[in-house]
Amino acid sequence: VFACGYASASENPEVFVQMGHSGSVTAVALTPDGRYVLTGDVDGNIKLWDAAGGFEIRTYTGQHQRIFGLRFSPDGKRFLSNGHGNGSPSSTLWEIATGRQIRKFEDASGAFSSDGRQIQLWSNGTFSVWDLFLEKQTVISQFNPPEDMHEYAFSDDGRYALVLMKDGHLVLWDMRAQQKLKTFQGISESSHLIKKVRGVFSAVFSPDYKHVVTWSNYSPFPGEPQINHYMELWDMATGTKKILKGHADRIEAVVFSADSRYLVTPSVDGSIRLWEIAAGREVRTFGGAIPKDADSGREWFTSIAFSANSKHILSGSGNEAKLWDVATGKIKKIYTGRAQGVLSVVLSPDGRKAVLGKNDGSIDICDLSTGNIVKLMQAHHYGVYTLSVSSAGTRLLSGSSDQTLKLWEFPTLKPLKTFSGFPHWVEAATFSPDGRYAVSGDGEGYLRLFDLQSDQEIRAVRDHNRRLQHVAFSPDGKYVLSRGFTDTTSSWIRLWNAADLTLVREIGWGLIAGDGRHALVMQSKGPFGTDPPRLFSIVDVFNPKEEKIFAVGGFPLAVSPNQHYVLSRDSGNRVMFYDTITHRTHLSSSAHLSGVNAAVFSSDDKFTLSASDDGTARLWETASGREMARMISFTDGEWVVITPEGYYNSSANGDKHLNVRIGNNVYGVDQYRE
């Protein structure tokens, strides 16, 4: 066992798992000296990587928006992240070495000035600069667009705006003088795409301001006519253009090299293309362009960056980034992790084992007393959305998006029975208290009752018009509770007779508690997770009466068996524990890096287990919110269980997924074993 405590001092070693991104990589950047790589994703997470070694160094969190741009300062000591979410942009300044968030600029997108002394900010047509030394913001200009304008785009430094007029002409606008400099010759083809179909006008200026590229990032829906995807390369001196054709689908970005000689474009068609500006021609294709009608599993390049010396390009696709050699077109390094997202969790009745359902269809069993994952197997073809252990602790149910429900011996995971024929994903399943029966719920809203002694389906009823996500038996086994969606936002609970699945009563909007007898019921109709917090009460479904009303923040996910706690997640994927006795809320000591899919309490309420798309299942001390351990398994079959202090257990080769950071230097854990 390797032990290395987390410490605040930058020179103390820190051990962590290389997780990579769980969400799509939407922005990439290289430091000016080429030593480090930055990647940002759709969940707002940003990661720093060692460019040469491919090691993950640090994760920057707190923006909580889709990252669409990353910019290093000229000295490589700081960076800006531009994000967009909830209808508005923001730009955040970070210190690379410490991970410290220095300042956040709301409702703005930013870039560094060429000398690194200022941050140039765009906000609703206003261009301003933030002086990094004086810590003062100065408004430079306000864009006053002409009346017949259709769309516009700005240069980073605020010198120019390129205006697309309603008649299709392009006008170069002097931002400081607030006047027209030039009308480009000819009609921009982007105007036709924007007017006729869903399209967004985009423009990028070359660093030397001799050229500007315009395009419309449009991708037709199935059945719509195909449109050639190309760019218009405009000469800013003459106002003439060249057409750059080659991509077969939407162009995601256009980036110029630092010397303005080349530009590179990633596309949904599965290719990256390098173009020579002077000749107006394609030089090289990276990756293999895949026909439009190809399988949806094709690689989709979403972001791109040039190295400062133009010898390399960095691309983002899926949940990884790739460094390419421009001269050879070959991949030099891939920046990624290999953890599998966790969709469902359950604890054994004695609380000693945690069972994890993964998005690749595998099931892990972790012995919480030893910190070992004692069983890891491929159980389904696709994601495991529900798990249940019988009260005797001898059998397991698993439901999957492969439209099957499976019965297993527990904890050996010996297969006993597969129930198939479901019309949709199996998203909920549980045992009766005596283990003789099981009930399931699926994505079409069907509630099904099974006799596990005869292995037969007894009855099925249509519960809800949409997904049915939670089912539970009452403690005496005579009733079934179901929770499903009646529309896209509201969660409705119903009570049924277990014998024949006839409806007894409707309970209301909310969650089913872990004891199968109580429910967290919303006192006003509407979606979870709104601000201000919604009002709830805990109701005995068999003896409804007026209960004390309380406010629960975030998005509620689980109610403890003793109704002492309600677990929610906040907008930053931090777990929230609401105490129904003291009416106080405390937060978990750390946050998941992506969506929290499920949570379950131990039978005595002392511990909580949460599952996330970030590849971790985390064990918490309920009363304090302290993280106790993370359980992680990887696509290569290896696994790691690690504590916040750096103590870990792993499979034979699992620790190859561990890194040790000292400052911003990262090493493999094999150099530090005792």
Name the descriptors.
single chain, 674 residues, mainly beta, seven-stranded antiparallel beta sheet, six-stranded antiparallel beta sheet, 60 strands, 1% helix, elongated
Write out the strand line-up for the largest beta sheet, numbering strands in chain order: 42-43-44-45-46-47-48
What share of residues are in beta strands? over 45%
Uncertain residue ranges = 1-10, 192-199, 289-296
How many runs of DSSP E, i.e. beta strands? 60
Mean pLDDT: 88
Largest sheet at a glance? 7 strands, antiparallel
Helix content class: under 10%
- Through-space gap between termini: 8 Å
Q: Rg, please? A: 28 Å
Please provide a written account of the structure.
The structure is a single chain. The chain is mainly β. Helices cover 1% and strands 52% of the residues. The protein is built from one helix and 60 strands. The strands form 14 sheets. It has a seven-stranded antiparallel sheet with strand order 42-43-44-45-46-47-48, with no helix packed on it. Strands 53-54-55-56-57-58 form a six-stranded antiparallel sheet, with no helix packed on it. The protein has a four-stranded antiparallel sheet with strand order 2-3-4-5, with no helix packed on it. A hairpin with a 3-residue loop joins strand 39 (437-442) and strand 40 (446-451). The N and C termini lie close together (8 Å).
